Amino acid sequence: MAVDALCLIVFAAIGRRSHHEHGDVLGVLKTALPFLVGAAVGWALVRGWRAPRAVVPTGVGVWLGAVCVGMLLRKLAGQGVVPSFIVVASIVTALFLLGWRLIANIVAARSNR
């Protein structure tokens, strides 16, 4: 779960920097918060603690939770949820949240040989 949180914080920091927003820690955490809450919802729904490195269901559940719940929370908070942001956020968070799991599984499989 910590790796997922770190990925979402990095996503928020990259996004803020690309929009020339201040790089302060509180601003990054405020931007990341809806996605972190969504990821926690995803973790709970798929019981991610059972298989934290599993791409399916854990990675997909965390990713969908982060994007769907995150966007809903952003909308409720009056933050931007334009279609282009939804597409970019969906792609980048998928790369981060599914990517680290794929890499970890490949490394684990190779080290078991």
Task: Annotate the secondary structure layout.
Elements: H1 2-18, H2 25-46, H3 55-76, H4 83-111
What labels describe this entry?
mainly alpha; 0% strand; 113 residues; 4 helices; globular
Rg for CA atoms: 14 Å
Please provide the ordered H/E string of secondary-structure elements: HHHH
Question: Could you tell me the strand content as a percent range?
Answer: under 5%
Class inferred from helices and paired strands:
mainly alpha
Number of helices: 4
- For the termini, the CA-CA separation is 27 Å
Shape field: globular
Would you tell me the overall average pLDDT? 96
Can you tell me the residue ranges where pLDDT is under 50 for at least 5 consecutive residues? none
Biggest sheet record:
none
Count of the domains = 1
Number of strands: 0
Helical residues, percent: over 70%
TL;DR?
The protein has 113 residues and is an all-alpha fold. It has one domain (2-111). The protein has four helices and no strands.
